[in-house]
Design a protein that fits this description.
single chain; about 70% helix; 2 strands; two-stranded antiparallel sheet
């Protein structure tokens, strides 16, 4: 649609910068024995770079699963913008993948916002997604989010010591993962 293409055109430079950053993360993406693959390696995203993009932008796992992300990767490598490199995503394929993500996520955000089991992180990711929409869509997502946040919840039972310890362990693991990711991103940016 022209309106969608206008959005991609308006943000083309930023999208190309993001694509370029992730395309150069994994220099091992090509088999050194094939010159075409070596030449193409830093101009395309391999599957690992694509997943890193999805994780860093918190698309996965909060708005869609890793499997959904891999399915999109495979689909755009077979779609109308596909090139001969089936295990690498070119910039036109990246743009098609972003469109596929938007369609998939659009259908899931209201469901996530209404789910009693949605985590705070999922709710924040949905709210962030909703803030990027405009007009009626933004108004709709805001109403759903506000209703979800205003919903009364039943008082929680006091957790056992075992449950508290399990929660502490999960928190420590999460903190370590975030610290490791921050260290990795710092090393990559230097």
């Amino acid at each position: 649609e022209p309106a969608v293409q206008d959005v991609f055109d308006r943000y083309d430079k930023i999208l190309k910068d993001i694509f370029g950053h992730y395309a150069t993360l994994d220099l091992q993406s090509a088999d050194a024995g094939e010159w075409d693959k070596v030449k193409n390696a830093n101009k395309c995203l391999n599957m690992d770079e694509w997943i890193m993009f999805l994780l860093n932008y918190e698309i996965t796992p909060h708005l869609m699963s890793k499997r959904d992300g891999l399915d999109i990767f495979r689909a755009v490598n077979k779609g109308e913008n596909a090139d001969e490199f089936r295990d690498e995503m070119s910039y036109p394929e990246f743009i098609e993948a972003l469109g596929r993500i938007a369609l998939m996520v659009r259908d899931r955000v209201a469901t996530k916002l209404n789910a009693n089991m949605a985590t705070v992180t999922e709710l924040v990711a949905c709210k962030r997604y909703a803030s990027l929409t405009s007009g009626l869509a933004q108004k709709y997502y805001k109403q759903v989010y506000d209703a979800r946040m205003a919903r009364k919840t039943k008082p929680e039972e006091t957790p056992t010591e075992e449950e508290r310890e399990a929660a502490r362990q999960r928190l420590m693991t999460t903190r370590k993962l975030y610290k490791d990711q921050a260290t990795l991103m710092t090393k990559l940016s230097n």
